[in-house]
Amino acid sequence: MMKTLVTVRFQSLALLIALCLFGSAPALCLSPQTINQTSVEFTPDVRQLYLQAKEAQEHGDYAGAIEKYQAITKIAPNLAPVYNNLGALYLNDNEFPRAVDTLKRALELDPSMNSASAMLGLAYFQMGENGKAEPLLRTAIGANPTDGKVEMTLSLILIDAKRYGEAASHLTNVVNRDPECVRALYLLRRIYLQMAEDARIQIDQIDPDSAIAHEIAGETDESIQMFAGALVEYRKAVEREPNLPEIHTHIADAYWHLGEWTSAQSEYKVQLKIDPNDCNARWKLADAILEARGSSEEALSNLDRSIIHCPTLTQAHIDRARALIRLGRHSEALSDLLMAEKDKPTEASVHFLLATVYRAQHETTRAVDEMNTFERLRQELNDSPAKPANDATTAPDGTPK
Known about the structure:
The protein is an all-alpha fold. Among the domains are: 10-200, Serine Threonine Protein Phosphatase 5, Tetratricopeptide repeat (Alpha Horseshoe), CATH 1.25.40.10; 207-256. The protein has 20 helices and no strands. The radius of gyration is 32 Å and the shape is elongated. The two termini are 38 Å apart.
């Protein structure tokens, strides 16, 4: 399933990176400031041709710019920036072999020219010669460690070589500098998926009947909402290794999604003996108690402890309000619901509970408004093409979840 990772959209990614690196108009490096003024090659004729090349490029006449640079190389064959700029234009036109020859000449004349190293590396990459591209791109990154676009290209080469860890390191550098670089995030996701799949395959090769192998199989079933199948795998895992970390949470979650509240409670309690500060397990234990119409006081006690350790756990606040309402303590539920509404304004059950609280406080207008919001959101949920499992708006007893 994952074996096509390194080739999927590979060429399109390369082209996009090329465009991002050099744009439609490569930067000109030749100027009186970048060339020794005493150079016998920087003659008035060279300067005039350079200005003409620059003007042509600024007007989008890249063929004209190439012609002027080619003319410069004939009368001044030792000006490295000329070959750098000419190579950039060839690269922009996807003339990769010509770009390679031209940029190699630039580096022969000036081995320290970082832009030529970067572009030559990319040209080799576009030609599929990753072995030649990699050292050049590493040299370019060494000279300019913040060049994210060059680092992206190197990452693609590393992905192609299945050196995922190193590729992930470079992509992380890119994301740290540019958190909104969606392409780097996309590649990171694909790398981590591939690494996870490789680890699963290796585990199966070592011991396909191990507790870890069954736990992974259960997680796979759970990810596609096959909770009954997940339970079978988790049970096999716990038989082989009863103290496997979080295995009881896995089992409890599967029961919770299946609506088997009593079994879910038992497993959450086992997990809480192992880790009393597991706020998610405490919240779900309380939720299972409420769903099973158990003790509201017991549910509230667990919810209080859950919120102490995870004060921003919105679902715990919703269930805490739900328990307080069942205990007739409507006014105490209001702060939890207002916090939940701020965090999840489209959560229909929050508005149902708010309507319940306002009605108990005789605030009729607010109660009606909240009920109208609840009905609208519930209708939108019903009209949506798919609903998540165990996401009913109300509990079996009619109380909003």
